[in-house]
Amino acid sequence: MTEESEVKLGEALDRAAQGDPAPGSEAQAAPEIAPAKGSGAEINLDALLDVPVTLSVEVGRSRVPIKHLLSFNQGSVIELDKEVNEPLDLLVNGTLMARGEVVVVDGKFGLRLIDIVSPAERLKKLK
Q: Is 106 exposed, middle or buried (0-12, 13-18, 19+ CB in 10 A)?
C-alpha cells in the first residue's frame, strides 16, 4: 500500500468513526477508497466492517529493571508515567487511536473520547 492510499484509508476511517447517525436512521455506507494508481483493484471497506479488533485503554507505563520486577508482591505500588488528570490512551490492536477520560455508566467503566489521533500522527508511529 502506498503512503497516499494509507493516508486516504486513515482519513476514510476517521470520517466513518466520526459519523454518528441519528437513532432510527440508516447508517451511512462506508466510503470507497480509490486504489493506488496502476493497481487495477478497487478497495471496498465493506469487507472490513465486520473484522473484530481489540480495544484497550492504557492508564500509563513504567520501565523497571527485572530485579525490581522480581521484588514486586501483593500490595506493591508501581509508579506510572501519567499524571492524574491526563487523558488515557485508547489503543486499537496496539495502535494509539484516541485519548479520553474515564466515566462510569451503570456501574461499569467507560472511556469518553476527547481527542482522535490524526491519520498523519498514526502513520508516523507505524514507521
A: exposed
pLDDT above 90 coverage of the chain, percent: 50
What lies within 8 Å, CB to CB, of 6 at 6+ separation is 119, 123
At residue 20, the pLDDT reads 42
- The yes-or-no verdict on residue 61 having pLDDT over 70 is yes
Domains of the chain with bracketed CATH:
1-19+28-51 (no CATH), 52-127 (2.30.330.10)
What is the pTM (predicted TM-score) of this model? 0.58
Residues 31 and 104: their CA atoms lie apart, in Å, by 33
Q: How far apart are the first and last CA of the chain?
A: 14
- Backbone φ/ψ region at 99: left (φ over 0), alpha (ψ -120 to 50), beta: beta
CA-derived radius of gyration, the chain: 19
